[in-house]
Specification:
- Helices cover 21% and strands 36% of the residues.
- The chain has four helices and ten strands, in the order H-E-H-H-E-H-E-E-E-E-E-E-E-E.
- The strands form two sheets. The protein has an eight-stranded antiparallel barrel.
- The chain is globular and about 40 Å long.
- It is an alpha+beta fold and 177 residues long.
Length: 177
């Protein structure tokens, strides 16, 4: 009987752990009445610690970023440029999944170019493609808390000596132009 109780508690703990992997809050889950009854018959009644199981959840996951729209805001940075001093990039991601990107080619006597369009998320909510109004891809970024990292056209990280410079940082609220 004791083995059955231990097996039931272990199965319950594993199920609760797996069920809690996608939520970021800490929560307390009550053990089912059947399990509590088995505890009583095994002589472990009155042990409050065995009546509830607390599970700590991850602080941030990508599904939460997408659901809470913490990715929305203005991102800014100077990206490498093959034939100029750098591409000053300002990218505004809106809660309605639209974007506005303004690029200024530093050291060139050109007007900034502005592109608008829609966001397309990958299935895991870790990467976003910028699609202009004609449906053409104009950017691909890995999304994390407070940063966007530019990816190549295949959605893979850019490699090479300048790889670390392909990052846009989120501006604090109230700093948007």
């Amino acid at each position: 009987m004791k083995n059955k109780t231990v097996l039931t508690l272990t199965a319950t703990a594993v199920a609760l752990f797996l069920a809690g992997c996608n939520d970021q809050k800490e929560e307390t889950v009550a053990v089912s009445e059947d399990s509590a009854a088995q505890l009583e018959t095994s002589g472990l009644e009155g042990s409050q610690d065995l009546q509830t199981i607390e599970t700590a959840q991850p602080t941030t996951d990508n599904a939460t970023l997408a659901q809470e729209k913490t990715w929305q805001g203005v991102y800014h940075g100077i990206l490498p440029c093959a034939d100029c001093e750098g591409q000053e990039t300002q990218l505004m991601l809106n809660g309605d999944e639209s974007f506005e990107m303004t690029v200024t080619y530093l050291g060139k006597n050109e007007e900034p170019s502005t592109t608008t369009g829609k966001l397309q998320w990958n299935e895991q909510n870790t990467k976003v493609m910028l699609m202009d109004s004609q449906g053409q891809q104009v950017g691909h970024y890995a999304v994390s808390q407070g940063t966007l990292t530019q990816l190549d056209n295949n959605g893979e990280p850019i490699k090479g000596d300048l790889a670390a410079q392909y990052t846009l940082k989120k501006e604090p609220m109230g700093m948007e132009e």
